[in-house]
């Protein structure tokens, strides 16, 4: 089998675009309808996608009058999706800053059992001040401290997941043996942040343990990803930037003693899809025209930890703290600053570029053009696949599954049917695939219009 793309559906409310809930292609009432998310899981499974992913923020966000990014707790919501699907993976975000390792390990392991081994944990450290305030804090914890805690937190969770041997459960009624106690282990962890005896009160899951996913692209984030992550979500805006990130992270994985093929890198992509490029661009503009600038300025402020609410929309981005002085979203602040400076954007233009994916790349084009774009990145060694972020739901995901996926299948870069039933099975390298990143591939001319 040739190298195959990995495709994840990153679903958020009724669409990733911040104005999605206002657009006539969506039904805003479905923001709090569990059946909406069940339908999204079924659409993703129909397209044979690896997984669906739910982000999470532990606060209402910068301007609840205009929008909020999270309504349902992800694991709870995915338990409903799990009961109506059979193959698609289920990735939930959970914070290492505002959880305990034991309760988080138990919750994820429970859903992994319930779903037949389809669960992944997106590891975040929670960078927003409002999140800290909801848990008794008065300021955003220092970036270095958050990641130090996260490193230990992940290690404890993995130890708990592995505290039962795969054959520990015996279930021998005649001998009255439920489990072999010699195969169930305390972990006796004593570290800087946690002391946990174990074992977990839940046997090992069908896939061994949930898949580890990570999305931070700061130095600390990349180190954590290189050490433990099996899937990495990232925001890269060009093939050159994507390849630089790809090569860097794979090299870090090697330094941690890992096979780089065991780390899958999936940049985010917001696709506006239509039967012509002109119509796709018009569709993108329809969403841009619905942006609430006061909400968008709140989002922009959160990247830099500075209130930008009074700034003129027709000015350029003012001088702002460098990444080294930002304790919140370090890598995202650098990405946004670079976008504004390299494209010489006004604040209004910058907010338009950020509206679809908060810094992730947006493209507008026909299904063929979208497929060309994905394959170009894939062939150039800039990605192992993509985190597809439909700007509106469910229509944007349906368009991708029904019109782009068949093209990728015909071109031999995406499976026509599932061959595995677990999430780790979807992401496991094929035996003959070697190290991902075909450097002999030539970057293709991409006719897709890149926006954002």
TrEMBL record:
Keyword set, alphabetical order: Flavoprotein, FMN, Monooxygenase, Oxidoreductase
Region annotation Disordered: where it falls in the sequence: 424-452
InterPro entries listed in its UniProt record: Diverse_substr_monoxygenases, Luciferase-like_dom, Luciferase-like_sf, NTA_MOA
Alphabetized Pfam families for the sequence: Bac_luciferase
Signal peptide: none
SUPFAM superfamilies: Bacterial luciferase-like
One MF term in the entry's GO annotations: monooxygenase activity
Annotated residues for binding of FMN: 56, 93, 143, 147, 217-218
Composition bias type Basic and acidic residues, residue spans: 437-446
EC identifiers of the protein: 1.-.-.-
Domain Luciferase-like: residue ranges: 28-382
Family statement drawn from the similarity comment of this UniProt entry: Belongs to the NtaA/SnaA/DszA monooxygenase family.
Name of the protein in question: LLM class flavin-dependent oxidoreductase
């Amino acid at each position: 089998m040739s190298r195959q793309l990995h495709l994840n559906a990153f679903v958020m409310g009724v669409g990733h675009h911040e104005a999605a809930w206002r657009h006539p292609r969506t039904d805003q009432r479905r923001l709090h309808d569990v059946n909406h998310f069940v339908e999204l899981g079924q659409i993703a499974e129909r397209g044979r996608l690896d997984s669906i992913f739910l982000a999470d923020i532990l606060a209402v966000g910068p301007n609840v009058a205009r929008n909020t990014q999270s309504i349902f707790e992800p694991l709870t919501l995915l338990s409903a999706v799990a009961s109506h699907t059979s193959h698609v993976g289920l990735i939930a975000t959970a914070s290492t800053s505002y959880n305990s390792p034991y309760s988080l390990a138990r919750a994820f392991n429970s859903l992994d059992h319930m779903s037949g081994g389809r669960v992944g944990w997106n590891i975040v450290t929670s960078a927003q001040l409002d999140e800290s305030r909801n848990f008794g804090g008065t300021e955003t914890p220092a970036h270095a401290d958050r990641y130090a805690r996260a490193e230990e937190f992940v290690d404890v969770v993995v130890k708990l997941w592995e505290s039962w041997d795969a054959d520990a459960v015996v279930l021998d009624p005649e001998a009255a043996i439920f489990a072999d106690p010699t195969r169930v282990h305390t972990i006796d962890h004593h570290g800087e942040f946690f002391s946990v005896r174990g074992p977990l009160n839940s046997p090992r899951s069908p896939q061994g343990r949930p898949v580890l996913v990570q999305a931070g692209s700061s130095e600390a984030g990349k180190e954590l990803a290189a050490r433990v992550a099996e899937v990495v979500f990232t925001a890269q805006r060009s093939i050159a930037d994507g390849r630089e990130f790809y090569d860097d992270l794979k090299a870090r994985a090697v330094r941690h003693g890992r096979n780089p093929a065991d780390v899958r890198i999936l940049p985010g992509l917001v696709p506006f899809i239509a039967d012509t490029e002109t119509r796709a661009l018009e569709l993108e503009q329809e969403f841009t025209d619905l942006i609430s600038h006061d909400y968008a300025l709140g989002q922009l402020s959160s990247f830099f930890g500075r209130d930008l609410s009074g700034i003129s929309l027709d000015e350029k981005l003012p001088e702002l703290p460098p990444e080294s002085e930002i304790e919140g979203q370090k890598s995202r602040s650098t990405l946004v600053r670079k976008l504004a400076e390299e494209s010489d954007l006004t604040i209004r233009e910058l907010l338009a570029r950020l509206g679809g994916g908060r810094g992730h790349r947006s493209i507008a084009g026909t299904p063929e053009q979208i497929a060309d774009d994905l394959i170009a990145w894939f062939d150039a060694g800039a990605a192992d696949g993509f985190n597809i972020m439909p700007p509106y739901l469910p229509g944007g995901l349906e368009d991708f599954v029904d019109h782009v996926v068949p093209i990728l299948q015909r071109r031999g870069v995406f499976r026509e049917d599932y061959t595995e039933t677990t999430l780790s099975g979807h992401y496991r390298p094929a035996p003959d695939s070697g190290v991902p990143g075909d450097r002999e591939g030539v970057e293709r001319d991409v006719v897709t219009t890149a926006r954002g």
